[in-house]
Every structure is written in C-alpha cells, then in structure tokens.
Amino acid sequence: MGSKKNVDMSQSETEVKIVESTQPEEEGTVTETSVAAPKKETRGRSKKYVAVRSQVDKTKVYDPFSAIELVKKLSYSAFDGTITVDAVLREVGAVGKLTLPHSTGKSVKVAIVDDALIAEIEAGNIDFDFLVTTPQFMPKLAKHARVLGPRGLMPNPKNGTVTGNPEQKKADLEKGELTIKTEKKRPVIHVTIGKVSQDTKELVENYKALIKFLGIKVTKTTISATMSPGVKIDFKG
User: Which pLDDT value is given to residue 174?
Assistant: First the structure.
C-alpha cells in the first residue's frame, strides 16, 4: 500500500507543499510533491530610468554640490524638473516653517488686506494664493470667513498671516516659505528646493539651509529630480 499525501496549509502563498501521512492511500489522492503558485508580475522601470540609474554609485554618499550636479545631469524630463530632498527624521510630526535663501521656482500670489481688497472679496474677485493682514482688519475679514475659510485663505495668527509686518510676511511667502512636516505615519519629509534649470550654487545653499533647520532631527537624505534616480547626499558636512 502507498502512503496518502495531505496538503500542508501552513506553507507560504507562493508554494503549497504536500507532506506524507501514515494513513493508507485512497483512490484519487494527489501524488505530486509540490505545487507552485503563479508569481505576480512586477512592473519594470523604463529604459531611460535604468540607463541613468547605472550612472549612480549606490554605495556613495555625494557632497551637496556633486549630488545636485549629478541629479541635474541625469534628469530626463522634457520639462524643467523639480528637485526634491527626501529626508528621514528621528520622529513623526511637524517640524516648523522655513524660508529658503533662494526661490524654489514655485510662483505664488500674496495679497495684503486693505479696504480696496476687501471690496474685491465682497464682489467675489479672489485672485491670490495667500492673504496677509494686520490685526485691525480682522473684524472686517470676519464677515467673509465663510468664503475665505473653505479655500484656506482666511488669515490666522498661528501661521503668521495675521502680523504687524505684512510686507515681510508677503516677501517670505513669495520667496517660498515652507511648512515642514513628516508623513502621517512615517518620519519622512519631502521638500522642494528648486528647479533643474536653477543655478547649482543656489540649490546647494537651499539644501544647506534645510539641513541646518532640521538639525539633529535628520538621519538620512537623498535628492532627486521629477524624473531621475535618487542620489544619497551628505548632510553632515
């Protein structure tokens, strides 16, 4: 008499193994020793990506200037790509606000509240990305909170858009004031520091300003363009 084969369901999804039993063999039992489950197809990288990735030494941590120059060289988008720093921090949460020394290439329109602008808001003409005001205009703006609030445009002391120096706040926002915070469940941030077409020296200064701002919170950084491989970049120098 042969031996009966039973399916061991404790095995992984990719392979179902058949183990021997001491029970007598019955007609129609399975006699194969293993059954391999079909593997899931994985999406491959584009040929362009693979080609440029081969030019990056994965074991090397590049100095800021070399890293940025390499990313600019390897960027293969038809448009002016955005350069982003991905950093791993020590914990999850908000870090704070930062204004980089040079533009990030993102254009924003900032308006300072006066009576003429309030009249425009009343008429339904809202043509700005940020609204900055002095405290004395807040009672007049409160009437339009239902319009401004849902759009995220209502000035707020917590984010600095209610201030005694609205001109300075306007300049900071136009330069690219950033709110730095991690992903909800991972201590990772993604910060735009400029464009591929931007001068490398400016990008290096923006990167160094970010690293100085993060201080001891940062444990690892990489840099990349919209369409380029990531490059490890030194944050300790």
Answer: 84
At the fourth CATH level, the homologous superfamily of domain 110-172 is Ribosomal protein L1/L10, domain II (3.40.50.790)
Burial of 194 (0-12, 13-18, 19+ CB in 10 A): buried
Q: Name residue 20's beta-bridge partners.
A: 5
Q: What is the CATH number of domain 47-102+177-232?
A: 3.30.190.20
Provide the pLDDT for residue 173.
Answer: 86
Tokens, residue 21: 């039993």
- Output the pLDDT for position 43: 57
Amino acid at 43: R
- pLDDT for 57 beyond 70: yes
Mean pLDDT of 171-180: 84
Smallest CA-to-CA distance from 158 within 70, 101, 94, 87 is with: 94
